[in-house]
Design goal:
It is a single chain. The protein is an alpha+beta fold and about 280 residues long. The chain has two domains: about 1-190, no CATH class; about 195-270, Alpha-Beta Plaits. The chain has ten helices and four strands. The chain has helices at about 1-30, 40-50, 55-75, 75-95, 105-125, 135-145, 150-170, 170-190, 205-220, 245-255; strands at about 195-205, 225-230, 235-245, 260-270. Strands 2-3-1-4 form a four-stranded antiparallel sheet, covered by helices on one side. β2 and β3 form a beta hairpin. The termini are far apart.
C-alpha cells in the first residue's frame, strides 16, 4: 500500500498542487498585467490578448500534439501524467479566470508571479508531469543538434518575447523576460534545472537486457564495466547519462529487469562529447 501511494497517488497529488499554483500565478499575477510566461503558455497568452478566447483553450489545443510526440519517446506513463497535468492546469485557469487580481503593480506581478509559477511548474516536472510542449520539442531537437535543452528553450522564449514586444510594448517583453528568469530559478531550486543531466551507475546481473532497452527506449548508450564485489564477486556495471525527464523511465526499465540492481544517480555539471543516439527516422 505504501508503494502504491508513493509511486502513483503522491505524484498525481503533487502534480495537481503544482498545476494549481501555476494557474493561479498566470491568472492572478501575470495575465492581468500582460506579462507573459514562456513556451506554449506564452503563445497562448498572446493569442488570448489578440482574440479574447480563453487561455486554457489554446494551451490544450496547442500542447496536445506535443504530448503524443513525448509519448513516442518516453512511453505511456508520460502521456497519462502529461494529459492529466495539462487537464488540471487548464481547469484551474478557468476557475481562477474570474478571481480578483492579486496586484496591479507590474513589479510585484513579475516577482511573486514568477516565484509561484516556478514553484508550480517545478513540482509538476519533479513528479513526472508536463505543462508545456516546448520542453519536449527542445529535448528532441537537442538529440539532433549540439545545443542543450535549456539553450533551445531559451531561444524559443526570446522569439516569443520579441513578438510580445512588437504587440504589447517592449516594457511588457522585458517584464516577461524577467519573469522567465525568476521562474526558471525556482524550477532550478526544486528540480535542479530543466536540462540537468544525470549520471546513472547500475550494478546488475542483467546488464545486456537493461542496456539494450535503455538504448531502444531512451536512445542512450551505456558503457559496460566489469567490476568485482568484495562479497558478491564478479559484477557488471552500466554507466549512462540521461536527462531529468528520462530518470523515471530509466528506473522503470531497471526495475522491470532486475529488482535487486544497485543504482546510484548523480548530477552532472558539464558534458563534453555526444551521449545521445542520433535518430535518422
Amino acid at each position: 500500500m505504501k508503494n502504491i501511494f508513493k509511486d502513483y497517488l503522491l505524484p498525481f497529488i503533487m502534480i495537481t498542487f503544482g498545476a494549481c499554483m501555476a494557474a493561479f500565478s498566470l491568472e492572478n499575477f501575470l495575465v492581468p498585467n500582460t506579462v507573459l510566461d514562456g513556451g506554449i503558455t506564452g503563445i497562448s497568452i498572446i493569442l488570448n490578448q489578440i482574440t479574447g478566447y480563453s487561455i486554457s483553450i489554446f494551451i490544450a489545443v496547442i500542447n496536445l500534439p506535443f504530448l503524443f510526440i513525448g509519448f513516442k519517446q518516453l512511453g505511456l506513463r508520460f502521456l497519462v501524467s502529461g494529459i492529466y497535468s495539462m487537464a488540471v492546469f487548464t481547469l484551474f485557469i478557468q476557475l481562477f479566470e474570474h478571481m480578483q487580481n492579486a496586484t496591479s503593480s507590474e513589479l510585484l506581478a513579475v516577482v511573486f508571479g514568477g516565484v509561484i509559477l516556478g514553484l508550480g511548474v517545478g513540482l509538476v516536472l519533479k513528479f513526472g508531469g508536463c505543462l508545456d510542449g516546448t520542453e519536449i520539442i527542445a529535448m528532441l531537437v537537442s538529440k539532433k543538434s549540439g545545443f542543450s535543452t535549456g539553450q533551445i528553450i531559451f531561444v524559443i522564449n526570446i522569439v516569443i518575447y520579441t513578438v510580445a514586444g512588437f504587440l504589447f510594448g517592449w516594457d511588457r517583453a522585458m517584464y516577461s523576460l524577467l519573469t522567465y528568469f525568476i521562474s526558471f530559478k525556482m524550477i532550478d531550486i526544486i528540480e535542479e534545472g530543466l536540462e540537468q543531466a544525470k549520471a546513472a551507475m547500475i550494478i546488475t546481473d542483467n546488464a545486456q537486457n537493461i542496456s539494450e532497452t535503455i538504448y531502444k527506449r531512451l536512445g542512450r548508450t551505456c558503457t559496460i564495466i566489469k567490476g568485482e564485489g568484495l562479497i558478491s564477486g564478479t559484477k557488471t556495471v552500466l554507466y549512462c547519462v540521461v536527462t531529468r525527464l528520462e530518470v523515471g523511465e530509466l528506473k522503470r526499465i531497471i526495475k522491470g529487469y532486475d529488482g535487486s540492481a544497485f543504482v546510484t544517480i548523480s548530477d552532472i555539471s558539464e558534458i563534453i562529447g555526444t551521449h545521445i543516439k542520433k535518430n535518422d527516422n
